[in-house]
Specification:
Blueprint lengths: L2 E5 L4 H12 L3 E6 L13 E4 L7 H9 L3 E4 L11 H21 L4 E5 L31 H20 L4 E7 L2 E2 L15 H6 L1 H4 L7 E2 H14 L7 E5 L10 H8 L20 H7 L7 H4 L8 H12 L6
Parallel strand pairs: 1-2, 1-4, 2-3, 4-5, 5-6, 6-9, 7-8
Helix pairs in contact: 1-7, 3-4
The structure holds nicotinamide-adenine-dinucleotide.
Length: 322
């Protein structure tokens, strides 16, 4: 059991991370500007509210709570949801404030959230990868302040890892489009549509290249990562996604419709294969996502007949993954 300090613990991803780590037996300190309502706070979770950008606040809260590990999630999490300079300054300063304070206190394990958007898909000037599936070797080409701020968060952990050697363990992870448990029941996803709508209309999932991950699988990933961080190279970055794509048809068919020029590149994305590989997390950590839209989505109330039929057909092949 560890004592884990989670920033952004009241957020879409943070709530599941806090709950999952507490359920796994850890002592969890959830830190956020906004409080989790008392009746929704998982048993045993300690909650602290504060603005982590206020001078000295990260150091004060970390000193007061004395954790063994820090998971930094707090950020402006949606591209273009604030002016570009505000997103850039907020996310880079938050990452630096939390990671530097944790380093100063000698906290043994420090993890920060990045994003798959660092790769640069959706760029209005055009974007094509060198190959699919995308993985941690794919070259980042951020084109907006959010993606750039996340790449800098990764580089912040790498900078501290370089300076600290093996004294402190650092890692970054890129969660795919996060689906929290209530969203399987019809609550709106981060971009406002329901899961059923995203599946019924591929144009809605295409901007994120059909990626997604269940927030509880991210919590499991972080639990495994913290257990294994002592045994893997320092400062690593991991994609954390579902084992399949958020689509009812193979991406080899869908991708060229939304990403012009990707016919040959996407030809290998057959069956239910996602565009993002999670092979590194599987190989280095032994982590495996347990949830898929095929196992979690409550289809009966939300899908029209045509989509239900295609979901049933797609679900029949759900074991066929990348
Ligand atoms: N949701 C996704 O699909 C997704 C995908 C990739 C990466 N991420 C990353 O994962 C992390 C969590 O995302 P999320 O969807 O839960 O976002 P969210 O907006 O739901 O949660 C972020 C939390 O950070 C808190 N916060 C922001 N500024 C703060 C400050 N100055 N002090 C204290 N708390 C502050 C907010 O109050 C909020 O509760 C973010 O770093 C995000 O960039 C999310």
């Amino acid at each position: 059991m560890s004592r884990i300090f989670v920033t952004g613990g009241s957020g879409r991803l943070g709530r599941s991370v806090v709950a999952g780590l507490a359920e796994a037996g850890h002592e969890v300190i959830s830190v956020d500007r906004d409080a989790i309502p008392a009746d929704q706070l998982p048993a045993g979770v300690v909650q602290e509210t504060g603005d982590l950008l206020a001078p000295g606040e990260a150091l004060r809260l970390l000193t007061q709570t004395a954790p063994d590990a820090v998971i930094h999630l707090a950020a402006i999490a949606v591209p273009f949801s604030a002016p570009e300079d505000v997103i850039f300054a907020t996310n880079t300063r938050l990452a630096y404030a939390v990671i530097s304070a944790a380093t100063e206190l000698g906290i043994g394990k420090i993890v920060t959230a990045s994003s798959p958007t660092v790769l640069g898909y959706g760029c209005p000037a055009g974007w094509l990868p060198d190959s699919f599936p995308l993985d941690e070797r794919s070259v980042p080409k951020p084109w907006n302040a959010y993606a750039l701020s996340k790449l800098i968060a990764e580089q912040t952990v790498q900078m501290f890892a370089a300076a600290q050697g093996e004294k402190i363990r650092y890692a970054a992870f890129r969660p795919c489009y996060v689906i929290s448990p209530e969203e399987w029941d019809g609550a709106p996803t981060q971009q406002g549509h329901t899961l059923a709508e995203r599946l019924a209309d591929p144009a809605l999932s295409a901007p994120a290249l059909f990626n997604y991950v269940d927030a509880r699988d991210v919590a499991d990933f972080l639990d495994v990562l913290l257990q294994k961080m002592d045994t893997i190279p320092n400062g690593e970055t991991f994609f954390v996604g579902a084992a399949d794509a958020l689509a009812t048809a193979p991406l080899a068919e869908l991708m060229p419709r939304f990403l012009p020029g990707s016919e040959a590149l996407a030809a290998g994305l057959t069956g239910t294969s996602p565009a993002f590989s999670i092979a590194k997390a599987r190989d280095l950590l032994g982590w495996e996502p347990k949830r898929s839209w095929r196992t979690e989505l409550k289809t009966e109330t939300t899908l029209n007949d045509e989509t239900s039929a295609s979901l049933v057909t797609a679900g029949a092949g759900s074991k066929e993954t990348s």
